[in-house]
Amino acid sequence: MGSHRKPRPGILESPAARRGAVGAGAVALASASLLTQSAAYADDDDTPAIEEQRERANDARQRALDVRERVDALYREAGTATQHYNEAREASEAQQERADELMSQAAEATERVNEARRTLGTFAAAQYRTGGGGLSDTAALLLAPDPRSFFATDHTLDRLSEAQNQAVDDFTDRREEAEAQRDEATDALADLEERETELADQKETVQGKLAEARALMDQLTEDEAAELAELERLEREEAERRAEQARREREEREEAERARQAQEAQDAAEAEAEAEEQPADPGTPPADGGSNASQAQAAIAFAEAQLGKPYVWGATGPNSFDCSGLTQAAWRAAGVEIPRVTWDQVNTGTQVSRDALQPGDLVFFYDDISHVGLYTGDGMMIHAPRPGEAVRYESIDVMPWHSAVRPS
User: Fold this and answer.
1) The one catalytic residue among 4, 84, 155, 383
2) Would you call 371 a catalytic residue per the annotation?
3) Which of 241, 246, 393, 377 is nearest to 326 (CA)?
4) Per the omega criterion (within 30 degrees of 0), is the bond before 318 cis?
């Protein structure tokens, strides 16, 4: 794990600045257009007022961009913390199962000790009845730290029957076993408590980052909020445009492929008619990975069905997802089980280069591998972006690239 947790980029190096450049340019263009229209109808005496209006608009735009950059950085940090939370939750759940199992085993071992004690008690009671008087041998036996010391002191071990010797051995072994299992169960519970503390800490970290982001957004003035809303609207429209373009191009390729296959089938039929004695070309066998391709399509189909569902940190569906929860659920729907967190998902399957991407591949982002999406082709992916947003199509160029993996 440690090898994947690299230092996060600084705020000024964040993808928000790069994304914002396009969006901010669009916002600036829109603002400038409005101001130009106003200037066209203004007298010379109105120039100072127009300049003041322009300055206010520029200030609001710059403030909106600054807040957007910081909010993006906070969401990035929350995304990393979310992966830590997911990891801690998995460990806590696994430790809970182990602790429950050990507690059950300890209880069973205790019951075996009680059975052995009852057997010893039967022998001790019989000796008390034949020996007469004094402290009940049953009581003395049960109080003795070592049952053999009881028999060695008050009764000669040589006089014990084989059954009595076996009873003493069983009791001693079972008591030692029970003590060992109780100790193991106690250690497991202590470990569980530590993991639950870590889980609570990670949850607090995520919530703190998200609360700070919300507080920054709440501090925006009406004009600044309007500038930011316009920026985000333009970005959404651009993402939708790219997704629609990718869809059309994919449909065109599929149509062209169907036409090519139909033409090949027609050519083969004509060739067979001309030379019936010549066996038909069986065609090229399907390439290796045909099954993987169908699984990839199943994963994409699942992800497409989740479009519009909200991002919720730590969520794995069915009504909401975080980034790695979505990719895990998508490939699970295709019959392939992959790990929960990005740092483990990146080591699952076959590493592929960016220029060899195929639909269904997992695409990872940022130096600390804190975000993942499902590649759909044409430079696009489906992913759960961040809190406040929904599962959507988006270009794989919107975040710093890390690597890609093909699950299998």
Assistant:
1) 383
2) yes
3) 393
4) yes
Is-catalytic flag, 323?
yes
Question: Where along the chain do its domains lie?
Answer: 112-187, 291-408
Whether the predicted pLDDT of 352 surpasses 60: yes
In this prediction, residues 31-41 reach a mean pLDDT of: 43
The rounded distance, in Å, linking the Cα atoms of 116 and 111 is 9
Predicted confidence (pLDDT) at residue 17 exceeds the cutoff of 50:
no
* 291-408 is classed CATH 1.10.150.130: no
Question: What would the pLDDT profile of 240-269 be if each residue is shown by its tens digit?
Answer: 787 677 778 778 877 888 888 888 888 888
CA distance 159 to 147: 15
Give every CB contact of residue 82 below 8 A, 6+ residues apart in sequence.
206, 313, 314, 322, 370
Quick one: tokens of 62? Answer: 């710059």
Q: Which of 96-110, 151-165, 222-236, 323-337 has the lowest mean pLDDT?
A: 151-165
Alpha carbon of 47 to those of 26, 32, 52, 59, 60: distances in Å?
A: 25, 15, 9, 18, 20
Q: Which of 4, 84, 155, 371 is catalytic?
A: 371
Q: DSSP for 79-96?
A: HHHHHHHHHHHHHHHHHH
Phi, psi of 404 (to 5 degrees): -145, 150
404's tokens:
């890609």
Residue 321 DSSP symbol: B
pTM of full prediction above 0.70: no
* pLDDT for position 127: 57
Q: Are 315 and 387 in contact (CB under 8 A)?
A: no
Give residue-wise pLDDT tens across range 51-91: 777 777 777 788 888 888 888 888 888 888 888 888 888 87
The overall average pLDDT reported for the chain is: 76
With H, G, I as helix, E, B as strand and everything else as coil, classify residue 228.
Answer: helix
Q: What is the CA radius of gyration of the chain?
A: 35
Q: Which of 4, 84, 155, 323 is catalytic?
A: 323
Strand order across the 362-365 sheet: 350-352, 401-406, 362-365, 371-377, 380-383, 392-395
- Is-catalytic flag, 383? yes
